Automatic annotation (TrEMBL), chains A, B:
Residues 75-133, 170-244 form the Potassium channel domain. One of its GO terms (cellular component) is plasma membrane. The lineage of its organism: Eukaryota, Metazoa, Ecdysozoa, Arthropoda, Crustacea. Pfam families: Ion_trans_2 (PF07885). GO terms for biological process: stabilization of membrane potential. SUPFAM superfamilies: Voltage-gated potassium channels (SSF81324). Belongs to the two pore domain potassium channel (TC 1.A.1.8) family. It is found in: Membrane. Keywords: Ion channel, Ion transport, Membrane, Potassium, Potassium channel, Potassium transport, Transmembrane, Transmembrane helix, Transport. This is Potassium channel domain-containing protein. It is a multi-pass membrane protein. The chain crosses the membrane at residues 79-98, 110-129, 160-179, 191-209, 221-248. GO terms for molecular function: outward rectifier potassium channel activity; potassium ion leak channel activity.
Length: 374, 374
């Protein structure tokens, strides 16, 4: 039988390709006809102008190339500080409008180095802000629920999803209004611009801050546009954190679980072969344990059922208890490995086990005492 | 004192802004001078042509606008199936070259809907493939180490990072060679193209499949370019999975840990105040438990120390054991909550507890028997 993770990956690949094929078919249907009409109209108008001024084909080509290359420069100074900051933002966030791109080799090289370090930094930062945003939202939700004296004043996941979605909607709608005012775009186009920007697709067919030398002349608008992008991406990160991140880590978590299970199986085998005290696990014996609480400080022959080499200081263990069943000790080691792997390090507790015949003496530190001594 | 997560987020924000400011300063220094030279040269040549053909300023503007809008159409049919598939890929992966963008409102609307569903799907798929790739790499590393009879035939994280980095380098270098051949770009430019594509920045200053109507006439090259993008992004996902994903989830994990700790504290308090059987935890009583193995099927008054409302079927519990210490039961509930939160659902075990005075009767199902009955 195929492993769950492989099946899932295969299913995802099939889904994605189906989705791409479907998308291609629909985009073809929606845009293809318009494309032909639009292209013919463009070529027609060009031909008219060409004939009117009697421009040779070669010169027209040169003129076209010049016109295309001039475009970024019409937006003002793209590489003075404000423009360079805007460019750095589009690189780091992977929006990459392409409204201005490096023309020197040094510029290209530095862009690569910059992106290599900046993109992971940006990813981690946006996720961190997103997480804080979710945390803050759930705090607000709880407060509001308390205020209205709801039965359970807790923030459920659904509440959070609603709040984050509302936040994203308000932000896009508000941002679009501002862009539509400053750029003189239609409201629909502004929404499209905000969406394409915040998903980091960044086509570059519509780019803010490119009209009337806005980069040089409207500092307040530059500030707004940049803050919109950065805060907007944080909200997107919050919703990804809430809805997608756990799906992203599914395979990795399954893998860890499988490893832990394999480890457990290996452990069990050892148990069966080499250990006398395996009886209770397999339902053959009836045993009684005598559990004693002993004063701290006195320790006698301390031995452990656990044969794993795990470092107790780094482990998560059940708090305040010691082994009272050989079985449980073995399974504890398994659990330890698992949690060590999944990096949940929570409580550090010492448990010391003494074994003499079928009598198990347990000394467990009181959590209260521990808190004092720490 | 500020919470660890807030401090971290603040530090990340400061880092990011510093990085952006630094980037802006360097890009300014590298590109700004060149920008002025280049712009002047372009405007100069344009003026020359304008004067030669005696084109009015208005007509020149129209001609420029036409030239700019015509550009996508020179690459062939952008919205026939191959082109539409290419477009769908750039949307789903958030590369967004912008070499062709929807011109109809329907096209724009559908692009938004398509991206809204497609980007999360793509993210999850690429991470799934990336994880499988890492898994496969570690398998190969182990095999190779065994072949060369290394002391420990295990794949360390460093090994994996080296392998994934090597894979990414080979892929970029190989891809660049192919693009440089097909597109007649310099090798450096091809490297730049591959990098900008695989980081999903996708400026669109250089776009594959746009020369000589490649989309219509070179199916094998179209196939190669698409596979390069998809496989390349999987390799990038593998390295993110290895190096960045755990940083991304740091805050969320800390939050869970804090919640669990708060829960534990609450639990402890309840224990101290309301529960008679708290004795052993606080070192006041000495109690003895009699543990019995009982046949399945017989159940008497089943009560639990656990006061939490967790659904046993969804829980992770220590395998094969039952409560043998009131203390432990309480801490188990705490552990349950924790693992429920972190969505590690692993082993489903029933433990039933009977309590009569200080005598606790424990019935724990044998894992062997369970395996049979399931």
């Amino acid at each position: 039988m195929m492993k769950k993770q492989n099946v899932r990956t295969l299913a995802l690949i099939i889904c994605t390709f189906t989705y791409l094929l479907m998308g291609a078919a629909i985009f073809d249907a929606v845009e293809s006809e318009n494309e032909n009409k639009y292209r013919n109209a463009l070529f027609e108008s060009e031909r008219l102008i060409q004939r009117r001024f009697n421009i040779s084909d070669v010169d027209l080509k040169i003129l076209e190339a010049i016109a295309f290359k001039e475009l970024p420069y019409k937006g003002g100074n793209q590489w003075k500080f404000a423009g360079a900051f805007y460019y750095a933002t589009t690189v780091m966030t992977t929006i990459g409008y392409g409204h201005s791109t490096p023309s020197t080799s040094w510029g290209k090289t530095f862009t690569m180095v910059y992106a290599f370090l900046g993109i992971p930094l940006g990813l981690v930062m946006f996720q961190a802000i997103g997480d804080r945003l979710n945390h803050f939202s759930s705090y607000i939700i709880r407060k509001v629920k308390k205020m209205f004296e709801c039965k359970d004043a807790v923030a459920t996941e659904t509440d959070l999803v609603i709040v984050v979605t509302a936040l994203a909607t308000i932000m896009t709608a508000g941002g679009a209004a501002a862009f539509s005012y400053y750029e003189k775009w239609t409201y629909f186009d502004s929404i499209y611009y905000c969406f394409i920007t915040l998903t980091t697709i960044g086509f570059g067919d519509m780019v803010a801050l490119q009209q009337d030398s806005a980069l040089d002349s409207k500092p307040e608008y530059v500030f707004f546009a940049l803050i919109f992008i950065l805060f907007g991406l944080a909200v997107v990160a919050a919703s990804l954190n809430l809805m997608v991140l756990r799906l992203v880590t599914l395979n990795t978590e399954d893998e860890k679980r499988d490893e832990a299970a394999a480890l457990k199986a290996a452990k069990d085998t050892v148990h069966l072969e080499g250990d006398i005290i395996t009886g209770p696990q397999h339902g053959l014996l009836e045993s009684s344990y005598n559990t004693e609480k002993r004063g701290s400080g006195t320790e006698s022959t301390t031995s452990s059922f656990c044969s794993c080499d795990c470092d107790p200081a780094r482990l998560i263990t059940r708090p305040a208890t010691a082994a009272d069943d050989p079985d449980k000790v073995a399974s504890d080691c398994f659990a330890r490995k698992l949690f060590k792997t999944s990096r949940v390090r929570m409580l550090r507790k010492k448990s010391r086990i003494e074994l003499s015949d079928t009598r198990t003496t347990i000394w467990s530190e009181s959590p209260k005492l521990r808190r004092f001594s720490e």
